[in-house]
Design goal:
six-stranded mixed beta sheet, 11 helices, alpha+beta
Length: 406
Amino acid sequence: KAVVSTQSTGDNKIYHSSCLNIDNDTSIEIVSNCGDTDWWCGLCQADIFPFFSFLCTQPESPEKCFVCKNFVSPLRDTSVHCALCTHTCHKSCSTNGICLMCLPRASNIPIPDTRTYNPYLELLSDSDRSRDDGTDAHLLEFISNVSHTLETCEYRDVPIVGNSSDMSLSFLNIDGCKTNFLEFEASNELSEHKFDIFFLAETNTRSDEESNCFYLAGYNQDYLHNTSKKQKGAGLALYHKPEIGLQVTVRHSCRSFEALGGNICRPGEEDLHLIAFYRYHDKTFDFDIFINEMDVFLTRQGRNTVLLGDFNLNLFNSDNSRVRSYLDLLSSHGYYPSISKATNFVGSTATLIDQIWTNIDPEFIKSSYVLTQAISTHKAICCNLSVNTPVAALPNTPVLCVDTTA
């Protein structure tokens, strides 16, 4: 874009030649005699730097903003170097020294799905019948508490800040660290509340050397690398604050899934087991193999376990035979769900495939929610645990397979 100034308008300003319908040859001659006049159009207020950079051949030539792609004016713009990617950008195109390209693409996105997964509501729909048929009071209390956890699960733009004694967990299918880790890191950096533990799935890393590139300040980190037979769609990462005292005890990889996690010692209480889980997305794989391998894995974990993962099984399709088999398995081991909202959004399709399951008393779960930040197609699933709550024995109750799509 060429520019034109005072000789055409008489107001001692510079304009794009296109804004005044003046040919480029004339405008170039005019600008060459302009001196120190400001370098933006008096009509459209846009930068006039394509022509300015043509005139300027010194190293101080203006740079383009990494975010908006417009030139950064040395006269009227304040520029910053992004703390993450080091690119130059307008200060207005950054937040706290981090360019908008490195921030989550959307922190407050509209959620097009309002369904809630709660298979326990049917049991609570007739309280009189429940009391009259001799149902154990402890079982009814358990069902009520689990139902409350699912009903209060919500979408949030920012993490919930719990009590100082609470432990906060987050799981995210990042869909490739090389692609999305900068946004994940920036989201954590800008958040006032820092989770105690992060789990990431589908990191797609293959070695410690590669994984160490994805460092999160203030956290210890452990990895389970992508298997050699898979080009992508595998790999787990665990980031935990040193003061949590988590000891990694689970590094499991088999034909159908992988898991990474550890134990947290609680004085006077049984250890707490926290495990990230990813079931490989392969529709042709023999599902019975997964059920058998999962059964063996859950038997080894025992009580006081929290599973956070992408199970690639949509709980909204509870009438599906695979989902029913999956629910029956988890129920037989005493697990119940804590996430009830859709977690993965691809086009117009929303599914609940990222889930938190636990076999601890529901009062242990202080809150569960889904973060709306768009780091990948998956949303981060989160929960706050009361680490000082004594663990009570749970009744052996089935997870009902109720169709919630209506």
